[in-house]
Design a protein that fits this description.
nine-stranded mixed sheet; about 375 residues; TATA-Binding Protein
């Protein structure tokens, strides 16, 4: 192993970047920007619920953050709930027992899962031995490649948990649909199945250099988090937007559907990102007889998804959706302190820093990738 990872909490720093929130002096929700070290988000929430008798659901967050790290994130609490547990100052003092508070404000907008825009990472990889000039050059070359082409937006190993992949595959191999009321606890484990196949699709497309193909369903997300979808026409180099939400409502009882009722034609722009299929109930597929659809049909065939596995996904409310296939990290920079590598970058919500690190080192130092859990799980 060339490097150690997360030797100290300061080696892994994550800052939550929020979407614009209208700040007010007397809003309904109290927002607190907290900074914690060597604690995950649930540690802080547990402390707050124990100290104030506040319920878990009364503490609003956007995402969970790592434990062995220094992380900042915002939490929000309804002022009416604060009044029932001793007031704002009481809650504030309880928080200060375990975290630092960097900022406080009010807003009329509640906090919700995935409501922040991105995460900013600063990671120090500590050299375990002297790094040769040849290896330094290889790492710099790989960083430049990722700066230009990005990396597969695969799920990291954290997504799957201990034995979840094995249990999900065993469950999907059944020739019948077990009663969901008796096995509802398996839902999280079952999510490993579509995640694995998405990883396979993302890696396959990336390694083939097919970053944009005819029929791709593209997504563009604005600063407020609104998503716009469209189909890429490679012949005319244009995008045909459609209303995804409307299609989901129209085909609520269908196992799959394709884009239709295009309402415009616009020029392609690089901020529109190709998406891949997350298998589940009511899946949106790329248009027939397109290259994107050929990739998806291959994946569905490999997964033997129709009909039983699709029925199983619907029974357990695993909704099919689209996920960006690739990520080009914002403002990826790096520098060295002696042989240590310090790398900084910003990723959208749901993308994994460990996957980026894995792509950086998989051909240079596979032992570090394996030992640190940076690999991409595929079928």
């Amino acid at each position: 192993m060339l490097f150690s990872f997360k030797k100290y909490p300061a080696d892994f720093v994550v800052d939550e970047l929020t979407r614009p929130v209208q700040r007010t002096n007397q809003g309904q929700y109290r927002y607190l920007l907290i900074c914690k070290e060597n604690q995950n988000t649930m540690d802080v929430i547990h402390h707050l619920t124990q100290q104030t008798w506040m319920g878990r659901r009364q503490i609003m967050i956007s995402w969970l953050k790592d434990k062995n790290a220094i992380t900042s994130q915002r939490i929000a609490i309804d002022r009416a709930d604060l009044a029932t547990v001793g007031g704002e100052e009481s809650v504030r003092q309880s928080l200060l027992e375990v975290v630092n508070i960097l900022d406080e404000n009010y807003s009329n907008q509640p906090r919700g899962i995935g409501r922040h825009r991105a995460n900013r990472f600063t990671i120090r990889l500590r050299a375990r031995e002297q790094i040769s000039p040849e290896l330094k050059k290889a790492m710099e070359s790989q960083i430049h490649h990722i700066q230009t082409h990005g990396f597969p937006n695969a799920f990291g190993e954290q997504r799957f948990g201990r034995r979840n992949i094995e249990r999900a595959m065993d469950f999907f191999r059944l020739d019948h649909i077990p009663d969901p009321t008796q096995h509802y606890h398996l839902k999280l484990k079952l999510q490993a199945f579509p995640s694995l196949y998405f990883n396979q699709l993302a890696v396959r497309r990336y390694e083939s250099g097919d970053f944009l193909v005819d029929g791709d369903i593209l997504v563009h997300q604005d600063e407020q988090g609104s998503r716009q979808y469209g189909v890429y026409d490679d012949t005319k180099k244009v995008v045909r937007p459609f209303d995804y939400a409307q299609l989901k409502d129209r085909y609520e009882n269908q196992s799959s559907f394709v884009p239709e009722n295009f309402f415009d034609t616009i020029d392609y722009a690089t901020e529109r990102i190709s998406t891949g299929l997350m298998m589940g109930g009511r899946i949106l597929l790329a248009p027939e007889e397109t290259r994107a659809r050929a990739y998806e049909d291959q994946l569905l065939g490999e997964a033997q998804f129709f009909p039983l596995r699709e029925q199983l996904a619907r029974a357990y409310h695993l909704r099919g959706h689209r996920r960006p296939l690739f990520v080009i990290s914002e403002d990826l920079t790096y520098h060295r302190e002696e042989d240590d590598l310090i790398i900084s970058f910003t990723l959208p919500v749901g993308s994994y820093a460990t996957v980026l690190l894995g792509r950086l080192f998989d051909s240079i130092d596979p032992e570090t990738v394996q030992q640190c859990g940076w690999g991409i799980e595929i079928m």
